[in-house]
Amino acid sequence: MGTQTTTVTAPGRKILTLDSSHGTVYREISSAPPRAATAEEIPIIDLSKLNSKNLEDHKSIALKIKAAAENTGFFYIENHGIEEEIIENAKESVMKFMAQPLEVKQKVARKNQKYWNGYFEPAGSQANKSESRDHKENFGWQYSPNLDPLYDHLPHPIASSSIPANILEYIRAEDEIWDGTLSCPGFKENAITYYRSMLSLARRLTKIFALALDLDESYFDHLTTYPGADLAFNYYPPVSGDIGKVKENEAMAHDVGLGSHTDLQCFTLLWQDMIGGLLVLNRGGEWIKATPIKGTIVVNIGDFLMRMTNDKWQSTVHRVEVNKTSEPRVSMPLFFGFNFNEFIGVLPTCASESEPPKYEPLRIGDWNYIRLNQSHNKIFKQREEAKKKAMVEAMM
Ligand SMILES: O=C(O)CCC(=O)C(=O)O
Ligand SMILES: [Fe+2]
């Protein structure tokens, strides 16, 4: 994420600790309880003209996306074209899969896989080290050409020799995980059908994103042939009572369904059920609710796209509250990024003489690694810690 400044508007203030592409950062935020988002903060964008033959229709969607991406970095899409039945089947399968005994789910535990595809047990992750562990379970997988509709014409499983070598070295799929899910009939089929629809929608949307960035509609096409396209089935069980805070950091610890973070790739398409709990940190440092709206998918900009746009588009911090309802909550995000082998820097339309590129081109396949290992950048760490000290002093 970028180095945005925040204005605190609400009664109290506090400091939020976050991982970023530069290492740990501190942000001063409002301590007011989350409030409903306004239609300007998280707009609903109608995609019914997404497949129209008229470029002007695409441009009019692009204009709305541009405004949302530059503002909160979050928006809803409606009339996105994914059939309700595909979504419902996937959701039902998540519910059935998660209802199985732990030892059955652990047959596809991520910790037994080389590349961490598969199942994460309850509280098996902690997205933000200054908050509680994540009160959720998860089943996730990474991009596989075998699941991609673009390669349906090839014999399956697709021979490694059919995939360019410089892409193959970054593929982190483990297609055998599906064998471990066969205890749950229909899960594999429903999950893959959902994945394929979301992947196609993401590809389609990158064309509109290109227009929104004043580029030709096909500008990103060659970057989406083997995309980073990882899917997560998040399952937030109902939680009651006081639940394991991070003891060593009691003052800042906050119980979460999923800790405060930004998404790493270009953008995320997130279907959520009607339970609610997703919170977004707006530009003013206030938590606002991305309240579920039937028939929509939430879209948010990720760190890499923010970088490509020279920080014009916002990769926004979000988190999920602990599920205090009596029903489990399910969300099913697709994290979408460009081909692993490509070097990408700041887009030509996002830099100028007065606003030179802030970032060097880098290889997408190395991005996650760089992003996740930045917390060891010592100079940056010292600077941020001094900043935090000044913030704390200013509050006293
Ligand atoms: O469950 C949600 O609503 C958000 C999930 C999310 O932010 C993520 O998986 O990165
Ligand atoms: Fe996220």
Automatic annotation (TrEMBL):
Give the matching PROSITE patterns: FE2OG_OXY
Q: What's the superkingdom here?
A: Eukaryota
Among InterPro entries, the record links this protein to: DIOX_N, IPNS-like_FE2OG_OXY, IPNS-like_sf, Oxoglu/Fe-dep_dioxygenase_dom
A single BP term in Gene Ontology: small molecule biosynthetic process
Which keywords has UniProt assigned to this entry? Answer: Iron, Metal-binding, Oxidoreductase
Q: Which residues form the Fe2OG dioxygenase domain?
A: 225-338
What family does the database annotate? Belongs to the iron/ascorbate-dependent oxidoreductase family.
What GO molecular function annotations does the UniProt record carry, in alphabetical order?
A: metal ion binding; oxidoreductase activity
* Record's keyword annotation contains Nucleotide-binding: no
Pfam families named in the record:
2OG-FeII_Oxy, DIOX_N
| Keyword Iron part of the UniProt annotation | yes
This protein is called what?
A: Clavaminate synthase-like protein
Signal peptide (residue range): none
